[in-house]
Amino acid sequence: MKRILSVALCLIFVLASCKKGAGEGGTSSIKGKVYVKNYNGSGVLQGEYYGAEERVYIIYGDADFYGNDTRTSFDGTYEFDFLKKGTYTVFAYSDCDTCSSGTEAVLMKAEITDNHSTVELPDIIVKR
After folding, report:
1. 71: which of 14, 15, 31, 117 lies 20 to 30 Å off by Cα?
2. CA–CA dist 33, 8 (Å, integer)
3. pTM exceeding 0.85
4. Mean pLDDT value of segment 56-77
5. Which neighbouring-strand residues pair with 94?
């Protein structure tokens, strides 16, 4: 009887711990573009373009730290593949003259609700 109870408890524990949340290992993706507004030292806009080689980060669910990062292509596009259903935060850093660190994160929220789907986010606009 004790053995059956032990096996049953182990089985319940294993099944309960199999809950899948946001993160890698799925069949969906999140994609978008990074748009750069380039200012001179006086704050005058010098140019606007989709940024190549910009770093973009993704946070899985409500984690405290980013789970992965990528760089944009020549046309400013980025993509995070093989994601499971769940909520995500995608961000890039923008220059910030009034921030003590000199940069601030520009955040975009995304939710994947279906397998084999692609969520396309609005442009992440950063200042340089």
Report:
1. 117
2. 49
3. no
4. 97
5. 104
